[in-house]
Every structure is written in C-alpha cells, then in structure tokens.
Amino acid sequence: MSRRPRIVIVGAGFAGYRAARTLARLARGRAEITLLNPTDYFLYLPLLPQVAAGILDPRRIALPLSGARVRTVLGEAGRVDLDGQKVHYTDPEGVAGSLGYERLLLTVGSVNKLLPIPGVAEHAHGFRGLPEALYLRDHVIRQIELAAVAPDAGVAAARCTFVVVGAGYTGTEVAAHMRMLTDDLARRNRLPHGVRPRWLLLDVAPRVLPGMDEKLSRTADRVLRRRGVEVRMGTSVKEATRDGVLLSDGEFVASRTLVWCVGVRPDPLVEGTGQPLEKGRLIVDPYLHVPGCADVFACGDAAAVPDLVNPGAFTPMTAQHAWRQGRVAGENVAASLGIGRRRRPYRHRDLGFVVDLGGVQAAADPLGVPLSGPPAGLVTRGYHLAAMPGGRARVAADWLLDAVLPRQGVQLGLVRSWSVPLDTASPELPKAPESVTDHPPEGAT
Predict the structure, then answer these.
(1) Model's pTM, two decimal places?
(2) What are the CA-CA distances from residue 140 to residues 135, 167, 262, 444 (Å)?
(3) Residue 400 near residue 392, CB atoms below 8 Å
C-alpha cells in the first residue's frame, strides 16, 4: 500500500456524493480520494419534475462535484478488475483510462427498468436525468404548439394527449406537475374547438404510490383526479407505436408522448464483478462491505443492503436510503484504513415521505402524521431545502419567482430525441450518430 492509500468511489449519486464528502472530512489529506462519474455534478433527483415543468432552472439541482472536496475524474466505468485492484473507464472524449485503488466503493446507482413490450424502447423515454427533463419540457411545449395549427381536431387531440406509465413517486409527480404546465400552455395557444390537454397515468398496481402509506396514496389520487389526470390502475401498455399506445385493456390511445416511469434496475456494472447478486444488486453485509472482498464496499441502489429494522429483507432503492448509506459507507471505508471512528452497521427507520403535487398541493406524513394541501406543501418544500446539500437559496428564489411571475413556455432545443433513448437513459448526453438526423420526436417520457 502506498504512503497515502487510494480510495476510488464509482458514481456520484446520493450514495457516492455523500460518501465522498464524508471521506474528505474524515481523511483530512491522509488518503487520496477519487470520485469517478460521467458528469461533473451531483443531481438532486427529487426536484427533477419541477425542472421539466419550468419551475426550477436546471442548474439549481445540479451541484458541482467540487463541493465534495475530492479529486474528480470524468468518465464512465466499464469494468472492475477486483484481482488487479483497478477500475477501467472511458472519458467523455472516448479515451480509455484506469484507476488503481486500495479501497473501492461502488455507488453506481440504477438505470431505467425495461420491460419486453413491443415499441416501448423505440417510442418512449425515461425520466432519470437533466437531459430527459429538458427534452420532455421541449417536447410537451412543441406538441401543444403544433396542435394549435394542426389540420384537424383528431391530430390536435393526439398531440395534446400525454401518457405516463408508472404511478410511483416519479410518475405521480411528473403527471401532477406537467398537467399544470399544459393547462397554462393551452391558455396561451388557441387550440381547435373541443381539444384540451389530456394526461393519463397508468400502473398495474391497485393504487397510486403503491409502496407508500395508503393515506398518502389517497391524497395523491384525489389531487390528480381533481386536476384532470385520468388515473387508471390495473392498466399498462401492451404496445407502443409512433401514433399512440395500445393499453392492456384493449383501448388504443392516440398520442405522441409516452413517459416511462415504471421503475429502475441496478446498474449492470455490478454484474461484471462476478460477486453474488440479489435481483441484480451486489450483496453486502450490514457494514456495506462486499463479503470475500476485503477492499470493496458498495451501497445505494447498486447494493442489496440488509434491513436491520426488518430482518430478512433488504433496504429499498430510494434516495433516502442511498444518502444515509453513503455516510455510513464513507465512515466504514475510513475505519478500514485506520482513519476516524470504528465501523458501524447501517440501520435506519423512515421518518416519513413527501410527494410534491404542484402548486400548493402535496402529500406528506412527517413522523407518521398524514398531511395534505398547503400544510403538506410547506412541509415538502421545507424538507427539500433541508435535504439539499447546497443551492438552497437559489431553489427558494426560483420558487418565489414562480409564485409571482408567469412561466416562460418556450422550447430551448438543447436536447434531441436520439440523445435520451430509453435503454441507455442516464445523466450524461451520448454523442449523436453520424447518420442520424433530428426527426420530430415520436414519443417522450
């Protein structure tokens, strides 16, 4: 081992960013800490729907990795050599590189969950990063503007119909926020007589927010329906085409927009380690250490972490768990090198959830107390301001401006359809194929 041990963290999501900050604080120059990530920012994902809706500037939720106070290397990890203690990666310009380590922390997160449904990969987009949020906003605005000059009401109605699949946390917030945006756009653009924006939220589950408390679910369902969102539980997509979506109940919905929020799966990188997996997640012990690999730790969505509060189960793939696991992982990696305090197991009991439904509407259950309406809205925004590791003043300023000024319904054209394919959706922007031109999008999500 070198005089200063080398620690490599792969991934700068909630777990990786928190671990990097923790290690920087504990090491104080006694270790060389490197953070490998495709982008130079940490993304505060819970507020991504507000970026798509035009409430927040994208930069408000993209916090520079320099704030972690560690060495940052831009690149996409391609392979982990556990025997050689190296991580092989490719930088944004296609140049291959490798990083040696004495301790490795895998926090690569998750990617879109794909289902074998005809047409979905070609005609839908996910909602996992800034490029997708910006693309969805442009696409929705474009559809409303094209509907205003459509040759007939049928085409206009199809362009004004938006389908969201997945009524979990992300899908519910996307449908709630974007419905408000399209209503505002419809008032500014003269649509054909009888044509209004239409939003459908689909899920095979029996209720909205199936993984959360039933009171939160009922609150969200009530707000969505009152706002005009068609909530269809027990329904999913059977086939997607460029002209619309065939639902599992046999109905064909003419639409140009398919938003895929079905869920996530662990990043495939962990499969290449050759270590035991649990539904694609790398199995770790309660100390977030990979058994049999003395120098490897993992946490966040990529790791199956034992849930000590619910014996026999693993912690769910949520930002709350990833953020808290990142701190414990950082402490335990430091402890394994004789830096800082003794290692400790990860144990956490949820204190509640918050769901922002746009405007003053939200659903929250802080400390188990169910809230709805403006009180829940205040709690939700207060929670996000407290949870964000930086940029709070700018976020609060954007919220204030949104409350007193009209939103700007304009297309920026920064992200093209081929840049956010569903099967490779991630925060970074892939390069455009040389033979591809930017045709009008056939779907979005």
Answers:
(1) 0.91
(2) 9, 19, 20, 8
(3) no
